[in-house]
Amino acid sequence: MNQHKPMHRLWNVQRVEIMTTSLVTPGTEIGNVGEHQAGEGAIAIEDRIVATTTGYMRIEDGRIIVDASKSIVNIEIGDTVLCQFEKLQEKGGEARILIVEGKSGDVLPHQLHGHFHVTRIVDRFLHAVADAVRRRDIARAVVTEVEPVVRLDFRERKDCGVLHAICPPCGATLEARVNGDWNVMCPTCNYESYRALADNFGSGWANLEEGASALNLAGKRWGKEAEQRFAQGSSGRATFIAADVREDGRERTYFRFEGQGQSGGRRQKSPPGCRLFVGGLPREIDTEQLRELFAKHGEMSDCIVMTDDAGVSRGFGFVTYTDKAHADAAIKQLDGHRLHGRRIGVRDADNKEKRAKNQPKGLKLYVGNLPFDADEKAISAFFGEHATISEIVIATDKGGKPKGFAFVFIKEEDSGDKVVKALNGQELNGRRIKVDISQGGGKKKTQGGKSSRELRAIAEEKNNNRRR
């Protein structure tokens, strides 16, 4: 038996020596606890030693070490990174970290993407992230946090910001050139936009003493042209691919489906007064039934009942006549018409003045925690002599069942606080009712039509002017 023990040990040594010449990957068993210790690039799991990185194994002083085939970079606060923008949202975004300046190796998987906020892009008020950077732009940033996620700052230094950008419509490289609010331009298709530029944007383009970051127009407010584009929302920021940028004399031809007109297949806009809005429709009324009702008053070019994603009617629709006289006749005959027990409303969909007149007048109050059996009569009795009600709107689900709250319009617009104080917390059918002044759909209160971020930007601009 003693003669076999040295052979067994020799077999173990030979097995380890053979493995030293092999490339191992994470999870590979490379030794046994007791025979060796786990060194760098390895870990002991129960009685086994397992590789934790990809590389070549060696034994040194009784420890099994795996030398990584590629070095790993651990990003730290204060590091400078080069990154490429991948995800852009309204108030923040995400960039893929390409390299860490001054360090060689691969970035750890959980540090591969850096997050940033819209306020840390450039020293200028931005309505949205896409106003200063675009997807595929290459930029330099400083790491400000590493836990729980990596956070980037493009505003801290002048050498941080966009280093390279391509034209979204045609793919050509953008050049730095100031024209009003815009500081980059495409030499091929004349696309103009704004980027938060780093000093060495365009690989040493700038000859200015301050560098290309001086073209960011820090601290300045946007001009009329830029504000008009931003006011259009996401559609104003959308990028449309250039139809054709060649200029070689050939005639330009574009594909068009058969039957499409100059509008590219979109519905032609109806003449003023021909398009009607139909509200208050019972849920069981579909497009064909609506068409049958309105067809009696003239020729229609379009008719539809609007539905949700599940195909359930949303309670309103649109009817378009070919002649305004037919539309006027339909309004006269069908506005207030009873359909399956409900009165429908019919009006000119494009007439904003009439639309405003049809809106309930008075102060809008929110009435919550209502019993499900509470109807308009019960709500009117609850308000009693505290207010004069002009209209009650009880919220219901798709099946017409009450949701437990309603909106009440009262004529005493200047007495809303008194009504709320008198009725809030009072009982109706055994339930304490919540009454409050409606905030218009939950929109944030603003001063002079400006959001809190805009007001903060104006304040920062005033402070900067004082320092100067």
Question: Would you kindly provide a written description of the structure presented here, covering whatever features stand out?
Answer:
- The protein has ten helices and 30 strands.
- It is α+β, with helices and mostly antiparallel strands and 468 residues long.
- It has four domains: 4-69, RNA polymerase II/Efflux pump adaptor protein, barrel-sandwich hybrid domain (OB fold (Dihydrolipoamide Acetyltransferase, E2P), Beta Barrel), CATH 2.40.50.100; 70-241, Beta Barrel (OB fold (Dihydrolipoamide Acetyltransferase, E2P)); 275-358, Alpha-Beta Plaits (2-Layer Sandwich); 363-437, RRM (RNA recognition motif) domain (Alpha-Beta Plaits, 2-Layer Sandwich), CATH 3.30.70.330.
Give the topology.
Layout: H1 4-20, E1 23-24, E2 29-32, E3 37-38, E4 42-45, E5 48-51, E6 55-60, E7 63-68, E8 72-73, E9 80-88, E10 92-100, E11 106-107, E12 113-117, E13 138-145, E14 150-153, E15 161-164, E16 175-179, E17 182-185, E18 192-193, H2 201-204, H3 224-231, H4 234-237, E19 275-279, H5 287-294, E20 300-307, E21 313-321, H6 324-334, E22 338-339, E23 342-343, E24 345-348, H7 352-358, E25 363-368, H8 376-383, E26 389-396, E27 402-410, H9 416-423, E28 427-428, E29 431-432, E30 434-437, H10 452-467
Parallel strand pairs: 3-7, 8-11, 12-14
Antiparallel strand pairs: 1-6, 2-5, 4-5, 6-7, 9-10, 9-13, 10-12, 13-14, 13-15, 16-17, 17-18, 19-21, 19-24, 20-21, 22-23, 25-27, 25-30, 26-27, 28-29
